[in-house]
Structures
1.
Amino acid sequence: MAQSKPNASTSDEDKSKVFELVKDIKMAMLATVSPDGRMHARPMASIQKDFDGTLWFMSREHSLKIDEIEARPDVLLAYSHPGRQHYVSITGKARVVRDRAKINELWTEADRVWFPKGPDDPELALLAVDIEQAEYWDAPSSAMVHAYGYLKARLAGESPDGGENKTVKF
């Protein structure tokens, strides 16, 4: 079970903020644990429509990540939007979902690039990541804020406010 920081939030508002930060970031790095205990990460496209504490991804049924998740479901997702200074790290348990109704619900024609046979492709499965904990950094991103931070550091010897950093337990 993931351990949380001493003052991890459990508020619905903070849980919603996690989704607000990641919903427009289409790519995440998904890290799994290999049989020899090493971390293995790869980019995955988020396919969220709604948010209820579970993040969704499409995958090939026969792939290394599926094997790793079925052996050890602990995963880490890393989202980053440097232009907006949004960074989110999510830990949770992944599971393979083979439910055709759920696949059809989340399917878009853009997915045909990776799955040319469409939503009925027998190689198509979903990965559901049930979030246990998230940590986010939401920093000011305007050029003026960075310029002010630089001046503050040079003139006063102080670091600027780095923005909001919070741990959220789901």
Note: The chain has four helices and seven strands.
2.
Amino acid sequence: MKITTLDQVPKTEMAGEGVTSTFKQTPIGVADGAPNFSMRVFTVEPGGHTPYHSHPWEHENYVLAGEGVIRTESGEERPIRAGDFALILPDEKHQFRNPSTDEALQFICLVPKERE
């Protein structure tokens, strides 16, 4: 069993094409012996975003703090805020964006452990 708090989990800045001001933490994952899923927490700073991308696995999300949008396959921006859940289906193009000027967007992202 593992019990932790988010402030005990290392925070790394995401790098790569199409990502800006986004940080990742993995409170539960492969290193902990998780047999099926990895739980990641992303923090998107004001003005930041994840890449606009797709992949062949689903992921489930829960917004912990802030407000933002998820850019969809069609380019539509769907609003999200603390307390919202979102399901991203396999191969569905998506991007998390934080248009705020003063508050971080923070969300849990659950994926198959192989995609940690």
Note: DSSP finds no helices and nine strands in the chain.
